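User: Sequence recovery, please. Input:
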């Protein structure tokens, strides 16, 4: 279906990698940064995780935060250390430049700018840090693409306002956006508002909306109201950005969950329609500025009232995004659940196995053709440029005695996905960039492991935080470098195993 040597990608196509502040920066309490949600995520082993629920290691609760504050050394708080990008950014950017990156997707830690979220003045040292990072990127001709909230709400806003469950948080978010839009004018062109905004549906206590689990019963009404507040916040950010610099491009970000019917039974196919409604709802609102027709019935049948204010409709309309971005890791199988308008499967776990696909070590089905399908369907739906904000493979590395990592599994994943993206572009889809998730090893969002490695740049650190944190090159480093140099035309994995680390 695809060729190893194909047509080069468009000349101005952006090649690069993607990260999030809470998974890489570390320095969680340096230079005036305030605590944020991720600082309270606990690393547990797989076995420990299987015995407890999400709040024990990932979801934010008031009790858990108090326990951790009283005794922080008792817990393995991996996101507090990240991979110490705060002190290694020059080295990391140099390595990314060596691979030929033209884009680096990163996020700003909101609590580095406003330590409590509702402070009167921003923290100058936090602002300076990102100035330095952007300058360093531009030194090598790398365009920063900046996420404003990547699962990273300041703790004070969570405790005081229950995150995006209240409208006050919308205004604090807008203030933070205005600050960074003004400060980084001329240094940043591309922005994203909320990372994987749809994940609030399945993980409301850990993702961008972040509420307190012990103070908010997870109901559809609550979750959809949080989403509404985030839609308004995102739209306000878009409006502000365009006012501050008309050249700014602001996108939304959807965790695209491509899905297939479990059989040719019409009911199973109908289920895929419902699944898409649950998934595309977010991008439908952010791209068109309107609630889609299909939610009316769902809201009515589930007694959901959206606490919309009279001005919201106009804000959503004016604040429609300029481009669509997605994360794409896998597809899943949907089966009819014998009732109308049922709940979404929408989870990052394959409940029904697709016999046609291999699974990654983490149990995520690997489906590169699904990537092409997703791109075509998204472009067909929105007709807006698409940026691939995340695509990648997390797996345990097995270094040789001399430290070389022959990560052919990672290379193959990239190869197949880039080839399918090339086909999608040939199909006519307007894709303007690709960011591999985790150019360097980083802390997993879901499990706080570092051993689930994504990087082409290795980081010498383990799940306990031991290690030198030195960076080194894996085989995939050379593969991506060659791929970028050929503008995506040469995807052959002919990299020698004898490379410098
Ligand atoms: C997405 C998040 C990222 C990232 C990725 C991989 O959902 O936007 O932050 O971490 O998934 O997930 P994980 O880190 O759990 O392997």
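Assistant: Recovered sequence (501 residues):
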């Amino acid at each position: 279906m695809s060729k190893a040597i194909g047509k080069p990608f468009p000349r101005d196509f952006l090649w690069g990698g993607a990260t999030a502040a809470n998974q890489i920066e570390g320095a969680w309490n340096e230079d005036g940064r305030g605590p944020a949600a991720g600082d309270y995520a606990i690393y547990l082993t797989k076995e420990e995780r299987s015995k407890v629920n999400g709040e024990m290691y990932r979801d934010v609760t008031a009790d858990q935060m108090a326990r951790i504050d009283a005794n922080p050394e008792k817990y393995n708080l991996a996101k507090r250390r990240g991979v110490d990008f705060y002190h290694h950014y020059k080295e990391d950017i140099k390595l990314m430049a060596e691979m030929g990156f033209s884009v680096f997707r990163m996020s700003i830690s909101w609590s580095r700018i406003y330590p409590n979220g509702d402070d009167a003045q921003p923290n100058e040292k936090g602002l300076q840090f990102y100035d330095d990072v952007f300058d360093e990127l531009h030194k090598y001709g790398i365009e920063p693409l900046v996420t404003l909230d990547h699962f990273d709400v300041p703790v004070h806003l969570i405790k005081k306002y229950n995150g995006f469950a209240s409208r006050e948080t919308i205004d604090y978010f807008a203030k933070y956006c205005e600050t960074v839009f003004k400060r980084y004018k001329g240094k940043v062109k591309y922005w994203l508002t909320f990372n994987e905004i749809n994940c609030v549906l399945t993980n409301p206590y850990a993702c961008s909306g972040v509420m307190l689990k012990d103070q908010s019963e997870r109901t559809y009404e609550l979750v959809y109201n949080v989403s509404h507040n985030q839609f308004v916040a995102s739209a306000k950010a878009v409006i502000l950005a365009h006012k501050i610099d008309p050249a700014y491009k602001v996108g939304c970000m959807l965790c695209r969950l491509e899905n297939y019917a479990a059989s040719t039974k019409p009911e199973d196919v109908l289920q895929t329609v419902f699944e898409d409604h649950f998934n595309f709802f977010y991008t439908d609102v952010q791209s068109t500025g309107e609630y889609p027709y299909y939610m009316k019935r769902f809201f009515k049948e589930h007694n959901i009232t959206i606490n919309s204010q009279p001005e919201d409709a106009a804000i959503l309309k004016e604040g429609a995004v300029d481009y669509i971005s997605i994360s794409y890791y896998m597809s899943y199988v949907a089966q009819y659940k014998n009732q109308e308008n049922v709940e979404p499967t929408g989870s990052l776990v394959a409940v029904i196995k697709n016999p046609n696909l291999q699974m990654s070590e983490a149990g995520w089905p690997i489906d590169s053709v699904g990537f092409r399908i997703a791109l075509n369907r998204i472009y067909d739906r929105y007709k807006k440029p698409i940026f691939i904000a995340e695509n990648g493979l997390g797996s345990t590395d097995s270094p040789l005695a001399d430290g070389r990592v022959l990560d052919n599994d990672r290379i193959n994943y990239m190869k197949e996905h880039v080839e399918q993206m090339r086909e999608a572009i040939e199909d006519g889809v307007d894709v303007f960039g690709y960011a591999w998730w985790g150019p360097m090893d980083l802390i997993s969002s879901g499990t706080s492991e570092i051993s689930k490695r994504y990087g082409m740049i290795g980081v010498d650190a383990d799940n306990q935080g031991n290690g030198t944190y030195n960076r080194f090159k894996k085989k995939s480093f050379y593969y991506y470098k060659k791929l970028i140099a050929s503008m995506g035309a040469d995807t052959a994995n002919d990299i020698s195993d004898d490379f410098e680390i």
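The two ends are 34 Å apart (CA to CA).
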